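Page 37, continued from 36.
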């Protein structure tokens, strides 16, 4: 694990956008198509703004959410919808978004199809994830009944999962799928999140799922 401490969020945003652009360019040099896993939400928005202006062969980049609430893409809580609105802009508008949601199916019924669709594209080439205050990443939540299976080395790339207290069921990239990424980046902003992350390093993976994926990650933190 590489832990990179930035002076402020602006420096983090600039450096992380450059690293993601570099990693995508390297991957495009190796493969015809590249798989890029990213989170929804607002925290990576400034990074996406810069990254979207990078001069890459975006039409050869497939973008997937690292996890998804089981809602249609036009729902306000859809990660795929947020990614489309915040990242697939400017030059990156040419990238191909791969939503995980499947209409008229339950997550449990859909995961076999999702895994089959993703199989030709795996492994993930570049991944960006965040971390919640409860030490979850993607939808790998402590206390989830499916967490042990999602952390197992032989877990499928995508699993249906429930999060304690969450309104919607979810699907998520599993720990082995994230760990297999050629380049894995973790975005953490704020002193409180840094303290949580430091605690996570001392806890079992079942209590701190973020700890299960960070062996080869570059962790980017700013106050």
């Amino acid at each position: 694990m590489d832990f990179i401490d930035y002076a402020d969020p602006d420096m983090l945003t600039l450096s992380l956008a450059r690293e993601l652009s570099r990693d995508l360019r390297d991957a495009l040099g190796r493969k015809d198509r590249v798989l890029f896993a990213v989170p929804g939400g607002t925290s990576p928005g400034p990074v996406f703004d810069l990254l979207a202006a990078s001069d890459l062969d975006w039409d050869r980049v497939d973008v997937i959410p690292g996890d998804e609430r089981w809602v249609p893409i036009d729902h306000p809580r859809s990660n795929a919808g947020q990614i489309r609105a915040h990242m697939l802009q400017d030059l990156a508008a040419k990238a191909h978004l791969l939503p995980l949601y499947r209409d008229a199916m339950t997550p449990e019924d859909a995961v076999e199809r999702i895994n089959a669709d993703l199989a030709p594209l795996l492994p993930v080439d570049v991944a960006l994830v965040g971390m919640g205050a409860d030490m979850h990443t993607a939808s790998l939540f402590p206390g989830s009944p499916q967490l042990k299976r999602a952390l197992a080395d032989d877990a499928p790339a995508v699993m249906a999962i429930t999060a304690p207290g969450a309104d919607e069921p979810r699907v998520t990239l599993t720990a082995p799928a994230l760990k297999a990424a050629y380049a894995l980046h973790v975005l953490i902003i704020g002193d409180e999140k840094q303290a949580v992350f430091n605690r996570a390093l001392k806890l079992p993976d079942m209590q701190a799922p973020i700890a299960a994926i960070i062996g080869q990650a570059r962790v980017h933190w700013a106050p």
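The chain has seven helices and ten strands. Flag for discussion at group meeting. The radius of gyration is 16 Å.
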